[in-house]
């Protein structure tokens, strides 16, 4: 089974279900990529920050050599980390990910966060007091350097991740190459209704990361809400003979989002793409919409002093 696609401004097609690879251990992620491709996935979401791009590249290489897929069949995303925002660092970061993944180009490359950290090799550069050191490079300058990478043929599409609506608009206002995608945390407990609508009005494809609210995340606290145990969802899942996870992911794609659930378990990887043989009713969609808390998992509140921290704005 393969997923339907959505068309980007470039004309390229992006599958609406992809494999997320954040927090996937290098020892597991190559097998996850191979299992996903065998299950019909043609969209893999990566990032330099995840520290596993060489292993993802190894998994892709196996499937290319087996003839299961060709490069042009796959949609591969990566992301520019915060320490590489300076225009002089952007192309080197792109080329580093390409080498790690064993690719000649990326289908999509996102600015991972709007905040620029101090340039250098430290992923989280801290001062002597443990406070994050940031850089004043405007993300609009970073965007122009990414546009040059598009012109050079290294990137097919470029976009944004974890930007708020004002920051998205600031990029649109200077862009020669239109942002294709905005990727943010989104699940029924953080439904991002306003940002979804804003993005759709601006012509950006909206991608939901952590679409299952990270049920097995290491930072889970006892009082955190759990989508998998939500009593309103099991009856819907039972009605369709589906899992709660499939219902949640179906809600995501049915409201117009691309979803990139993470898993390294082959059975769950297979299950997460089987979303297109049922549809939720308007009442069921409203039930999921009504679960909004909002509850954010990925907030980086320890860098809220950095000027471009995105969550000062309501959306």
From TrEMBL:
List the catalytic activities from the record: a primary alcohol + NADP(+) = an aldehyde + NADPH + H(+); S-nitroso-CoA + NADPH + H(+) = sulfinamide-CoA + NADP(+); S-nitrosoglutathione + NADPH + H(+) = S-(hydroxysulfenamide)glutathione + NADP(+)
Q: What is its EC number?
A: 1.1.1.2
Q: Which residues form the NADP-dependent oxidoreductase domain?
A: 21-291
InterPro entries (alphabetical): AKR (IPR020471), Aldo/ket_reductase_CS (IPR018170), NAD(P)_OxRdtase_dom_sf (IPR036812), NADP_OxRdtase_dom (IPR023210)
Active site at 50 (proton donor)
Keyword set, alphabetical order: NADP, Oxidoreductase
Mind telling me which SUPFAM superfamilies this protein's record contains? NAD(P)-linked oxidoreductase
Which residues does substrate bind? 112
Q: Please, which domain of life does this record's source organism belong to?
A: Eukaryota
Q: Example GO molecular function term?
A: alcohol dehydrogenase (NADP+) activity
Q: Where is this site: Lowers pKa of active site Tyr?
A: 79
What family is it from?
Belongs to the aldo/keto reductase family.
Specify the protein name.
alcohol dehydrogenase (NADP(+))
User: Which organism's genome codes for this protein?
Assistant: Branchiostoma belcheri
> Which classification does the entry list for the species?
Eukaryota, Metazoa, Chordata, Cephalochordata, Leptocardii
Per the record, the gene is LOC109472729
């Amino acid at each position: 089974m393969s997923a339907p696609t959505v068309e980007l401004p470039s004309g390229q097609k992006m599958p609406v279900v992809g494999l997320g690879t954040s927090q996937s251990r290098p020892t597991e992620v190559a097998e996850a990529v191979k299992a996903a491709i065998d299950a019909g996935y043609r969209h893999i979401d990566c990032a330099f920050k995840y520290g596993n791009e060489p292993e993802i590249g190894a998994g892709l290489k196996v499937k290319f050599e087996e003839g299961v897929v060709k490069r042009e069949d796959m949609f591969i995303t990566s992301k520019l980390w915060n320490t590489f925002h300076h225009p002089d660092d952007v192309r080197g970061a792109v080329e580093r990910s390409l080498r790690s993944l064993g690719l000649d180009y990326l289908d999509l490359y996102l600015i991972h966060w709007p905040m620029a950290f101090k340039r250098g090799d430290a992923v989280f550069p801290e001062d002597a007091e443990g406070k994050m050191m940031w850089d004043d490079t405007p993300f609009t300058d970073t965007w122009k350097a990414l546009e040059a990478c598009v012109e050079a043929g290294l990137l097919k599409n470029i976009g944004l991740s974890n930007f708020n609506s004002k920051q998205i608009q600031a990029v649109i206002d200077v862009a020669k190459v239109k942002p294709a995608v905005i990727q943010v945390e989104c699940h029924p407990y953080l439904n991002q209704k306003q940002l979804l609508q804003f993005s759709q009005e601006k012509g950006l494809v909206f991608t939901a990361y952590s679409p299952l609210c990270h049920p097995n995340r290491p930072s889970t606290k006892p009082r955190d809400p759990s989508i998998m145990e939500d009593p309103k969802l099991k009856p819907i899942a039972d009605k369709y003979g589906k899992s709660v996870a499939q219902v949640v992911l179906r809600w995501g794609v049915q409201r117009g989002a691309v979803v990139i659930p993470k898993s390294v378990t082959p059975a769950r990887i297979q299950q997460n793409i089987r979303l297109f043989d049922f549809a939720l009713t308007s009442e069921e969609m409203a039930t999921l919409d009504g679960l909004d808390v909002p509850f954010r998992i990925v907030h980086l509140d320890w860098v809220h002093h950095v000027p471009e921290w995105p969550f000062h704005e309501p959306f």
